[in-house]
Amino acid sequence: MRNRGEQTICAISTPPGVGGVAVIRVSGPQALLICKKIAPGLTQKEIKSHQIYFTKIKDTATGISGGETVDEVVVSYFANGKSFTGEEVVEISCHGSEYVAEKIVDLLVDNGCKLAEKGEFTYRAFMNNKIDLVQAESVLSLIQSQNQASARVAVRQLQGYVSKQFEKLESDLTWCLAHIEASIDFSTEGIDVVDPVVLIQKLKAIRVDLSALVSSYRSGRLVKDGIKVVLLGKPNVGKSSLLNIFSQDDKAIVTPVAGTTRDVIQATTLFDGFRFTISDTAGLRATEDLVEKIGVDRSQKEAGKADVVLYVFDGTEPDWQIAKTQLSEVNSPVLILVNKTDLLSESQRAEFRKKLQNLSANYQEQDIIFTSGLDPKSRDRVLTSVKTKIGQLNVLDEAMITSARQYEMSRHALEMLDASLQELEKNMGAEFIAMYLKDSLMSIQRILGHVFDDQIMDRVFKEFCIGK
Ligand SMILES: Nc1nc2c(ncn2[C@@H]2O[C@H](COP(=O)(O)OP(=O)(O)OP(=O)(O)O)[C@@H](O)[C@H]2O)c(=O)[nH]1
Ligand SMILES: [Mg+2]
Question: Using alpha carbons only, what angle is made at residue 453 by residues 452 and 457, rounded to the nearest 5 degrees?
């Protein structure tokens, strides 16, 4: 991908399969020239940037005079420097047959195009300074977004909101580093270039901004990947019934037989702009049945991966001793669902709440939800409580990191910044302070792609699909 800038590339940009239209993208110095060869009608027109043209794609290899018409298409033209990739780009919208789209790509290749590699259009946009690496990653996030919140966050990243924060860090760190390096240069002449107190203040301010970005990843991950919720509890308490209600789907088998669910069953659902992945699990109990034993093992493992565990009681016959043991083995945040409440009176509910709070002081009023596996209204109450339990997921007001790469590198930058602050506060040599700061700065520059690194490029662009 790296040395192909001189070549003109093409690919189908719409998903495989049949659709109303398919779009073929062509980018590079010869984009229009090659397209004119397969759409001779374009040669008679004056082609202007950001205009569309109706024309025919012709296959001249068939022997038919003037070539056989492959399809009637609409061609959009973007001049060099005025497109997403920064190069000359032609987009051909044809009828959405897989055969037709592939035929057009074949014709483009026969006339001099190269097939694009995964993410090569976005890579070119990056290489031509149209976007930085943070924005390139946001393109992928936006394509992959499956809910309102993740799409919103990705669009904001694409618009450069997060990049601006990293650029500010880059510029502030550069200022500090420049002054420290100057003080090293002038140290023999006894000139104080920067007051250490000012420098400490400045670095601490950078630290505040950088930590905010690092901690935004927790929310970012939940927004992008969804919130993972696991239903846990004794057999027959109504976990599978609740899964079906939460996912609004008949996913899991429900029977009055204890031990019905043997494996982890997952369903996803969108609620309030967020994506929830909900796992139903085998009821927890000591058993001699080999299959069930494996199932119980899996339940516990699944609970370990949860953002929130929903521990389900059968409200009509709670087993406090077992619940206490089972709950003590859960390390994730827990909400208690008291199920089958359609069978409970008001006073029984109040008593239940009291006993639960005696069981552990951990369970506040808002952590206990009375549900019924027979009542779809339980869904809203439980999913709202899950969101509250997770805490603030503010997708509009803050710059949010959603990429693991950006998170790892920001954390490294923060560690190095802390190391330099420690050196500074201990009044150690300026060389050490500068060394750590340089490392921190490099990490920020790598995030933005301001220093070129083969491995990073591979990591970012290998996840893209062809045609993007
Ligand atoms: N009355 C009433 N019955 C319920 C409720 N929830 C579930 N049930 C019934 O309780 C029985 C067990 O429900 P399941 O959803 O299979 O329970 P489970 O916890 O998944 O059970 P295992 O898979 O064995 O662990 C079924 O007969 C359900 O119809 C509820 O809220 N009220
Ligand atoms: Mg079940």
Answer: 100
Establish whether residue 240 lines the binding site of ligand 1, counting it when its CB lies within 6 angstroms of any ligand atom: yes
Q: Which ligand is the nearest neighbour of the Cα of 284?
A: 1
Name residues whose C-beta falls within 8 Å of residue 95's C-beta, 6 or more positions apart in sequence. Answer: 21, 22, 71, 72, 73
- State how far the alpha carbon of 422 is from the alpha carbons of 91, 176, 199, 233, in Å: 55, 15, 12, 48
Nearest CA to ligand 1 atom 32: 340
For the stretch 149-203, pLDDT in tens is 888 889 989 999 999 999 999 999 999 999 888 877 766 665 566 788 889 999 9
Backbone angles phi, psi at 300, to 5 degrees: -70, -40
Q: Where are the alpha helices (DSSP H) in 332-427?
A: 346-359, 378-390, 404-425
Please, which residues have CB less than 5 A from ligand 2, an ion? 239-240, 260-261
**CB of 96 within 8 A of CB of 74?**
no
9-131: CATH class: alpha beta
Cα within 13 Å of Cα(278), Cβ side: 30
Q: What are 129's two structure tokens? A: 């300074």
pTM exceeds 0.85: no
Architecture of the domain delimited by 153-222+403-449: Up-down Bundle (1.20)
* C-alpha to C-alpha distance for 116 and 84, rounded to whole angstroms: 15
- pLDDT digit string, tens, across residues 54-73: 999 999 887 777 889 999 99
The owner of tokens 């662009």 is 461
184 close to 433: Cβ distance less than 8 angstroms? no
Best residue among 230, 231, 234, 237 to mutate for probing ligand 1, ranked by most atoms within 8 Å of CB: 237
CA 226 to chain centre: 9
DSSP 68-84: EEEEEEEEEEE-TTSSS
| Domain layout of the chain by residue ranges | 9-131, 153-222+403-449, 226-390
Structure tokens of 259? 């031990």
Number of Cβ within a 10 Å radius of residue 465: 14
Q: Which pLDDT belongs to residue 398?
A: 67
Cα angle at 395 between 242 and 370, to 5 degrees?
25
Q: Looking up tokens 């710059």, which residue turns up?
A: 399
Which CATH architecture fits 226-390?
Answer: 3-Layer(aba) Sandwich (3.40)
Report the pLDDT value the prediction gives residue 342, as an integer from 0 to 100: 96
Q: 16 C-alpha to center of ligand 2: Å?
A: 37
With a cut of 60, say whether residue 396 has pLDDT above it.
no
**From the CB of residue 328, how many other CB atoms can be counted at a distance below 10 Å?**
9
